[in-house]
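Sanity check

After download, print the first record. It should look like this:
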Amino acid sequence: MRILLWHGYLLGGTGSNVYTRSLAREWSRAGHEVVLFCQERHPERYDIGAATLVQPEIEGLLPVFVLDRYEGLEARLLQDLSREQLDRYVELNAEALRRHLPADLVFANHVLPGAAVAAATGARFAVKAHGSELEYSMRGRPELERWGRSSLERAAAIFVGSAHIHLALEQVVGPQKRVFEVSPGVDVEAFAPRPREQALAALVDQARRDPLNPGAADERLPDPGNAERFRAFFSQAGATVVYMGKLLENKGVHLLLEALRDLDAKAIVVGFGDYRRKLEQMAGPNVLFTGALEHRHLVNLLPLADVAVTPSIFPEAFGMVAAEAAAAGVPPLVARHSGLAEIAEGLEREYPEKWRELTGFSNGDVSSLRSKLEALLALTQAQRELLGQAARRAAVANWSWQTVAERLLQPFTI
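Expected structure tokens:
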């Protein structure tokens, strides 16, 4: 198949960015001709297989769901833009796509603006709904809800990553036909268990290769000096808890920091965001903030951890980072709600019965988080290894990117 894959943003960092580059890689590996449309300024940093990358000219204005910095672009919240500005953005992207038609399928990320862009091409299209546009920008804004609903009318398929996002989609734009539930995926080849000494050496080596970032001025790059900081951190005794994700209040990292105060454990906090400064003020001396890290770091960092916590207090479409931890053989502990609950359920199917309750904790409940974390850390090394093996089995069975990429094309190849 010839597939035009549209994603209005970058290829690194957040969930939909990883989702897009992973699909480009897997579809091209499977022999499909893939043209990827995005605003990534540094595509050489990412593996997109044999996909061709196109950067549409959007005249500098980028509609987003959460404000971040984008090199060479002015990011503004989707809901803060006028309809004239949004229509112009849609037409610029649609024209870039039309120049690469014909194609068997246009696959667009995000109900808005993605479905609107894909519909404007006139080609057969599918849409992947993400939680970000539904929850942060569209919900409760009737004009955007109507626009999303009309944009989906001609979609040949609408994909959601979980039952939670399917429900959110219906709540925001109304019931839809041709909706398929396909969870996001994990690179189970890259995220895999490995010996700790080997993982630490590789992590330090990758950190030494990081681009210069004096004063951590660029929040999307790793903090300077991470190589030495990693070596010092892991030379200390004690179990390691890891958090990976954006540093926003609704990600719940403050709950983890509070829970850690009474536990004999150290923690690594990976990510960037406007809540970082406050989190650093809350954190004890046993917590290391690394800044943004990429998969080349994370595949080596995770095998050094004993538990990976995803404490988000806001609905999540899917627990990508928890699934990555599971693939690496690290027991995840997630807030039991929305798409994260589905991660917990996938783990429970593989865990021994006596440990199934250790997959999740009550949303927003520090006491629940602390007790589950304490129970996980109290396991012997051999017991945690058994739990990690079960987590790995769950990841391979449910969330490999190869399986996900194949399932997304099934409605068009049957």
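If your output differs, re-run the checksum step. Summary of this record's structure: Residues 152 and 353 are 43 Å apart (CA to CA).
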